[in-house]
Structure formats: C-alpha cells, structure tokens
Design a protein that fits this description.
Layout (H helix, E strand, L loop, with lengths): L7 H28 L5 H28 L19 H25 L4 H25 L6
Length: 147
C-alpha cells in the first residue's frame, strides 16, 4: 500500500476545490457551445464541447482520487457568472481567464504535493492538458478582429 506523504485532509480539500472548478468549467463551456453564433460557429461548438469532455475527465480523476483517499467528492459547483449576451471575444476571454486560474491552482497544489509521486504525476498531466486548452483558446483570439 502506498503511503501518502502529505496531509490527507488538505489533499482532499484541494482536490474538492479543483473538482468544483472543473464542474463549473463544464457548465461554462457547454453554455458557450450553445450561444456561440456566426460563421465560425461549427468549429467553436466542437472546441467548447471537447473542452467539456476534458473537464469531465479531470473531474472524474479528481473525484476518484478523493474517494481513494477516503474522502467524499463535492457536489458543489464553483459559481458561474451568467453575463447574458456575450460577444465571441468576451466568451473566449472569459474562458482564457478561467484556464489561467485553473493552471495557477493546479501549479500551487503541485508545489504542495511534491512528496506524493502519484498526486504529482496526476497534477502534472492535468497542468499539461489545461495549458493546451489555454493555448487553443489564445489561438482563436490572436490576430483576429471580432468587431
């Protein structure tokens, strides 16, 4: 049996916060897939829905790890602001900010979990995937005129 070298209670708390943020990400991306309009709608709907799937994979990993550590996965969802009408640029900027916040959270947790090789590897993989999401979104706004 692998012995966790970090405070299990703090790990479960951090994992639950990450879970709540991933669930919120799923809601935000799904909502954006519904409301995106215009000639680029098709590829953006696909992008947003693939990000929903990736967030669901992360949420599943986090939830399973919480249970494996003896905790209970949260059913809370971090609050998702519903601003109403949004331009494509506003949607993507909101998503970029969310991805940046997720990466920052995961990087901080990674520093805290360095002594646990399994958590370290899990977080490194999630950070890699979150960074890929961020870069995908940034490519949509680079050198594009959304007026």
């Amino acid at each position: 049996m692998v012995e966790t070298k970090v405070d299990k209670r703090l790990v479960i708390q951090a994992l639950n916060l990450a879970l709540e943020r991933e669930l919120a990400g799923m809601v935000r991306y799904l909502h954006h897939s519904f409301i995106v309009l215009g000639p680029g709608r098709g590829p953006l709907v696909q992008l947003f829905r693939s990000l929903v799937q990736d967030s669901m994979v992360h949420a599943t990993l986090l939830g399973e790890k919480i249970v494996a550590l003896g905790g209970h996965p949260s059913v809370k969802i971090e609050e998702v602001e519903e601003p109403g009408e949004q331009t494509l640029l506003e949607m993507i900027q909101e998503d970029i900010a969310m991805e940046e916040q997720h990466i920052e959270m995961y990087e901080q947790n990674l520093k805290d979990f360095q002594k646990d090789i399994v958590l370290k590897l899990m977080y490194e993989q999630i950070i890699l995937e979150e960074t890929t999401h961020l870069e995908q979104l940034q490519l949509y706004v680079r050198n594009n005129d959304f007026n």
